[in-house]
Fold:
Amino acid sequence: MRIPFEQMQAILFSLFVKYGLTEDKARFISKIYCESTLDGINSHGINRVPRFIEYIKNGSVKIDKEAECVGTFGIIERWDGNLGPGMINASKCMDRAIQLAKQNGMGCVALRNTNHWMRGGTYGWQAADAGCIAICFTNTQPNMPPWGGKDSRIGNNPFIVAIPRKGGHVVLDMAISQFAFGKINDYRLQNKKLPFPGGWDMNDELSNDPEQILKKERGLPIGYWKGSALSMVLDMLVTILAAGDSTCKIGQRSYESGISQVFICIYPEIFDDRKLQEKLLEEIIDYTHNVEAMKPGDQTYYPGERTLATRQQNLKEGIPVSDEVWQKVLDFLNNS
Amino acid sequence: MRIPFEQMQAILFSLFVKYGLTEDKARFISKIYCESTLDGINSHGINRVPRFIEYIKNGSVKIDKEAECVGTFGIIERWDGNLGPGMINASKCMDRAIQLAKQNGMGCVALRNTNHWMRGGTYGWQAADAGCIAICFTNTQPNMPPWGGKDSRIGNNPFIVAIPRKGGHVVLDMAISQFAFGKINDYRLQNKKLPFPGGWDMNDELSNDPEQILKKERGLPIGYWKGSALSMVLDMLVTILAAGDSTCKIGQRSYESGISQVFICIYPEIFDDRKLQEKLLEEIIDYTHNVEAMKPGDQTYYPGERTLATRQQNLKEGIPVSDEVWQKVLDFLNNS
Structure:
């Protein structure tokens, strides 16, 4: 089914108010969920709402708490999320990084004790809308084995880079796993193999069989040993800078909570050559767009390009949502 | 053969002086080449010296030029490398980023018109030795197809993250290609297949056959479409921030020259809890070290761990160098 943006937001707003969020916060969070779904990221949009409600109910997300600054060191700030809703905390910290960047050229906020920020790209689009370049990343619960190891002890630690652009921002929103487990499950439901290996089977062999991989959640990092190392250093950076919990600690909890994040912003307009920068950016996009396709029908995109196309289509036609998920959301709203 | 560090450095020093570098610069560059070789990175150490000499001879590297600051914007500086030796330029810019970080918590230097920095890890170790966290990256000539495209139009753009640590720094030094072409050639020489696909063959199929991949240099990005996107945004960042040349422009030259780089530093000692940070870092390392091995004999390492082990071994036993490469270096030194 397809649901118009406004309708989805109104329903989610009511739902979040029902579960105790203030109207301001309910409005803010419902907007974030709807925008992610509008952009086609249902996994961290509407599909994720039931789990968010569960986390409110089990106390992992504390709806009356919010991130606050606990230390300032030059252009770096440390914030404590107090286990409040991850989207509000992350957005607040990105706002602060934007402010710092506009004052100093660059700014950095490290956040601890926060919760899942849902779609990482949200904060990339936020910074780019404010005219800032952003680099931000988060740690997660363990869901991939470190290279050479048997058990999942590193996180898929999403890594986001955003670059403001008049014709549509460039936004890379990339987990360090080759495939999200949600994606692997989609393949399973369709009885299809993954196009490339995506995790380890029960015999400790790399596999592209979703059924086998999902028996034990051991995802494959992008680039094998390279992504494994990248995941580790991202965890180290968020943990050290925020003085927060690492993937090790997060993994000891029943629910993924109390994670650490870093938000870095750069304000490119401090340079006196914004026009030149824009020209240089278009040159890179044109060069990669204009490449001959490898296989008929293939096409090359810049990061964020398809998101924007999906957004425009869904604004016009309504947002595609699974009947089952939508019913679940309505049940949460209508039942006690 | 194995050559002691001091002997290698003395020979390279004489070689660089012969090719017109000042004694100071010759000493500096020979040290960088020797340290990379000592660490086992021969590809960007001694093996690369002949090409560096060629680049001096063909004018791509201008030995009398050096990087200079061309603009300051808050804590961000822009430098122009004036096509001087890449190692001297990069090291100077990393030094400046370290200074800025020690003053402000964080610093950033963007460098344009520079040359190959050889081993990117060099500047990570440099920052970590100075007590700084570093994130730095460079663009390169095109050597991988953007995802969906036929021809190489994105670079393998090495990406480095360094974190200072008493027991041995954490240094991730990672090109965005799954395998370096030098590594692919090593497999070819040994008549072996790559353990995983590393590039495209002449039929536009992914291949692990070094012979086939090397017929046309089209490397595979880590994580397929993910590394393709990551390579693009790294190129965009260095190009915009430095107002320098992108992979597109670099690819139009006969030699890889005039590249762009970014050096970001964070000074973790500005926080008043260095001891806590150290504890948190060890926790991550212990957690990933202590994982059960997936296959007998496998082991998990933190990024930089094996480099340090190689360094210690080679300091004791001398640095392994191919006879052929060493003879080439001696020929450059002894012949006119």
In short: The CA atoms of residues 2 and 319 of chain B lie 5 Å apart. Chain B has four domains: 2-57+320-334, 68-177+222-270, 179-220, 274-302. Residues 68-177+222-270 of chain B form a domain with the Ribosomal Protein S8; Chain: A, domain 1 fold (CATH 3.30.1370.60). Chain B is about 45% helix and 15% strand.
